[in-house]
Automatic annotation (TrEMBL):
UniProt KW keywords: Hydrolase, Signal
Record has Hydrolase as a keyword: yes
Region of interest: Disordered: 336-371
Pfam family, one: Abhydrolase_4
Entry keyword Hydrolase: yes
Signal peptide per UniProt: 1-23
Protein name, entry field: Alpha/beta hydrolase
Annotated Pro residues bias: 343-370
Organism: Saccharothrix xinjiangensis
């Protein structure tokens, strides 16, 4: 997969030409070589790619068009083949073209035998008419892009940053940006289904991808086959109220972090009890606010930068050593030793590099991807789906309340985003309903910090009897995770194989950990925020 958590003028693309072209049975698709995968993303020589022309504005189907990039790994056994299984990497803004190669390492044969695996870069993302805000990587500081208030609670700097970023996005986003929305991406998915010659489509995705799946299942209920939604967002909270859940969710997840560190006090020396670790966290944040540290990989670490790292690396227990390494370095002025039995801490810098530099050698025949495409496309969706609150005093009130109630994030979840200074959306958001077949399996961890459990309950309420909810007593972001096997993994695989939903909602603890090295859910590598 991508490096862990790459807290990673737009033009209508010309027709893409790719080498070694071969014909397909569909008149709409020509399969060819795929562009090279990003760093740390598995490559699979079976994967083939194509581009598909879709309307820029689906309300004007005969108007201007863009091209989206799609991929396929044909894994189904002819005698067992059911159809295609599509994936999205979340974010929003996560490139998803190479996801089939990742999921091919996760699925058991019972699933692989039944589906061809499909990926795609959503519109505005990666190789699909990529958008830009005209910025470089260092113009997206993580503690401002994720709007952590000042140590005294002021949001004035956040509002200034958000206003200027919105200005740049609207100036550089071109005609594509207003139409980079979840509803339009769902309509693109249906065009993919048609181009593949499939009557229905199956789906397994999470985080932001849960909302995309729910919107598709609402717009095209009769075209859904077997849908697995993981790490779920509440469609009635999109997006300001959904982000507000981060503050509560991170409080719950921090209990896991504190317990993990307390068990390893002999290594990290941050406290022998969870209460001591929690207090040490606040003491460290306060000290860094007054006297920032400098990490050789991360750079300056203020209190808010440590908060941002804690949030980013709360996504999976496998990332806790990275958080511990940075925290110890900032707190004690030296690198932390490796805890016995813990994986080595990876480079923490990706969490603070939300807009990685473009590939210096773009793939021949594919468009160059702007340096800030992850963030630009993310904002296009977040601000294009719904109209954000405009009243800065509302943000001030909500931040003050959440700072008191949920101090771990300091009120970040309720703070102001560029969406407060964006143009109005081109259409109203899709209202997710319970109208349609009962063919949705929701899987969710109880203490997910990025898509907290309350959001999953909201989506379950919206889908009603269309869905069953499987909950795992864990805090990882991503319940479909072979490195943390559970009833969620088993039920998802069983549902994709047989189409049988559980008779009722389920709750379970994770299974015993498998041997080290088991692949982690692709959700762990998705771009924040959701």
């Amino acid at each position: 997969m991508r490096k862990l958590l790459p807290v990673l003028v737009a033009v209508v693309l010309p027709a893409l030409s790719a080498p070694h072209v071969e014909a397909t049975t569909s008149p709409d698709l020509v399969w060819s070589d795929c562009p090279p995968p990003p760093a740390n993303v598995p490559d699979d020589p079976r994967m083939r790619c194509a581009t598909l022309e879709v309307p820029l504005d689906h309300r004007a189907p005969h108007g201007r068009t863009i091209e989206i990039a799609i991929s396929k790994i044909a894994t189904a056994e002819p005698g067992l083949r059911r159809g295609v299984l599509l994936h999205n990497g979340g974010g929003p803004g996560a490139p998803s073209l190479h996801l089939p190669a990742a999921y091919a390492t996760l699925y058991p044969p019972e699933v692989l035998d039944r589906y061809d695996l499909i990926g795609f870069d959503p519109r505005g993302v990666g190789y699909s008419a990529p958008v830009t805000c005209g910025r470089t990587a260092d113009q997206y500081p993580v503690d401002l892009y994720f709007p952590f208030p000042a140590p005294n609670g002021s949001i004035d700097r956040n509002a200034e940053f958000a206003r200027e970023l919105a200005r740049d996005c609207l100036a550089h986003g071109g005609p594509v940006m207003p139409h980079v929305t979840t509803a339009n991406t769902a309509r693109d998915v249906d065009r993919v289904r048609i181009a593949l010659g499939e009557r229905k489509i199956s789906y397994n995705s999470g985080s932001y991808g849960s909302y995309l799946g729910a919107v598709y299942a609402t717009l095209f209920p009769d075209r859904t086959d077997r849908f697995v939604l993981d790490s779920n967002a509440d469609p009635d909270r999109v997006w300001h109220e959904q982000f507000a859940l981060w503050d509560h969710g991170m409080e719950l997840r921090f209990r896991d972090i504190a317990a993990w560190l307390a068990e390893r006090d002999a290594t990290y020396h941050l406290g022998t009890t969870p209460a001591q670790v929690r207090q040490r966290y606040f003491d460290t944040v306060a000290e860094l606010d007054a006297n920032p540290a400098h990490h050789p990989a991360v750079g300056p670490i203020t209190g808010n930068v440590l908060r941002a790292i804690a949030f980013a690396y709360s996504y999976h227990t496998a990332l806790f050593p990275t958080l511990a390494e940075v925290w110890v370095y900032a707190d004690q002025g030296g690198a932390a030793p490796e805890a016995p039995g813990s994986p080595a801490a990876p480079d923490p810098s990706p969490a603070l590099n939300p807009a990685p530099a473009p590939d210096p050698s773009p793939a021949p025949g594919w468009p160059p991807v702007p340096a800030d495409n992850v963030r630009a496309s993310q904002l296009s969706v977040l601000c294009g789906d719904t109209r954000a609150p405009r009243d800065l005093d509302r943000y001030r009130r909500e931040v003050a309340a959440h700072r008191a109630l949920f101090p771990v994030t300091g009120g970040m979840g309720t703070n102001v985003w560029p969406c407060a200074f964006w143009h109005d959306p081109v259409e109203r958001p899709v209202e997710v309903t319970d109208e349609g077949p009962a063919n949705v399996l929701m899987v969710q961890t109880l203490r997910d910090p990025a898509t907290p459990y309350l959001g999953a309950l909201g989506l379950k309420r919206a889908l009603g009897q269309r869905a069953r909810l499987v909950t795992v007593d864990s805090g990882n972001h991503g319940a479909y995770d072979p490195s943390t096997p559970s009833c969620a993994v088993r039920e998802a695989n069983r549902f994709l194989e047989t189409g049988v939903l559980p008779a009722r909602d389920l709750f379970c603890a994770p299974d015993p950990a498998p041997p080290a090295g088991a692949p982690i859910s692709p959700l762990v590598s998705t771009a924040l925020p959701s």
